[in-house]
Amino acid sequence: MSSKLGGGRPVVLAIDRDPRVRGALEKELAELGYAPETAGTLAPSRLEAPQPDLVVLDLDTPAPGQGAALVEKLSVAWPRVPLLALVAQPSFDAAVAAFRAGASDVLVKRPEEVAYLRKRMRSLVEERISPRQVSTEGDAHAAVGLCEELLERLVETSRGLLDLEDRASGRKRPSEPAPACGVVVVDPDVELFVALEAGLPAAGGWQLRHVRSGGEALDAAGNVSFDLAVVTETLPDLPGRTVARTLRSISPATLSILYTPAGTQPGRAVVVEATKDLPLASDLLGPSDLVSSFPELREARRALTQEHRVLRMVKQRHGDLLKQLAALRRKGLGSR
Predict the structure, then answer these.
(1) What is the pLDDT, as a whole number, of residue 312?
(2) How many helices (H) and strands (E) does the chain have?
């Protein structure tokens, strides 16, 4: 229920130790038609007064690094009141701490973010004052949605941090050359290997290796990690599809391509995934027609590697959140 302090208008409590920010927030809230209530800190007596419809809180209030504790205190006292946290500078750790403490969202205090701030304040207030009955099933599904939204934000933040780390360490530069790409060609004949070797020169970062059987390919994969594996469908010892899928299992970051040479029908190539094949090229008249697909495959492999790094970071830093999300999903499915 909306607070009665605003004379019928939604009440928004803005807490910031900077009087200039409080003044700016008061102006924005009034323009939105809300009843602004501003404070430099949270007075204990305020928790006994009627609840506001939204709290906008600076994470450096009452002092730098103490805002998350205040978010947690408010979320316990007013569990149904949305909390919008503000930070002076983008901070991964501060954002995570705020979300875990109970914040509904975390925004950076920047002039260019004012329009989005107004939008988020409006949407959070509307969610607060909209009358609705939420079932137990709805609660579980809503919790899953919130956790998934938080997880998406953490993934995006982790992706940005890794990009910054790469640039700071010199691993990523705007004009960097194409990275080295190791390719194993599994084919009893040499025609495919010769065609790829001619079209993918070592000077371009391509490192090709030729093996003639599935067994030889699996032995090699046990000792060397390949970026790409090109496997001819017909091998002397094992089915090509089995070899391609096994190479993918040995190293999930390896892109496995199953190649069917042209015969009575044009040749084709597919990317072998765990559960399905993804079309790569069709109507191939010869092995050389496959070469044009490899630059795109290299970029896909690089993107896949980066995503694995991102997911490892998220898993290492937020394993408890992933476990909670899994438990909420089971609860949501079980309530159906």
Answers:
(1) 75
(2) 10, 11
Q: Which residues pair with 107 in a beta bridge?
A: 86
In whole angstroms, how large is the CA radius of gyration of the chain? 28
Chain-centroid distance, C-alpha 132 = 31
**pLDDT greater at residue 89 or residue 147:** 89
- Using DSSP's 3-state secondary structure scheme, residue 48 falls into helix
What is the total count of domains within the chain?
2
Band of residue 142 on the pLDDT scale cut at 50, 70, 90: low
Q: What is the pLDDT of residues 259-308, one digit of tens each?
A: 999 988 999 999 888 777 888 889 998 888 989 888 888 877 777 666 76
**Residue environment code for 229-246, b if the CB has 16+ CB neighbours within 10 A, otherwise e:** bbbbbebeebebbebbbb
Q: Whole-prediction pTM value?
A: 0.45
Amino acid at 311: L
Q: What is the CATH number of the domain that holds 104?
A: 3.40.50.2300
Instruction: Indicate the Cα dihedral angle 225, 229, 233, 237, nearest 10°.
Output: -20
C-beta of residue 211 within 8 angstroms of C-beta of residue 302:
no
Average pLDDT value for residue range 178-194: 89
Position 249 in a domain: yes
CA dihedral sign of residues 26, 27, 32, 34: positive
The range of the structural domain enclosing residue 19 comes to 11-131
Across 114-250, where does the E strand assignment appear? 181-186, 206-211, 228-232
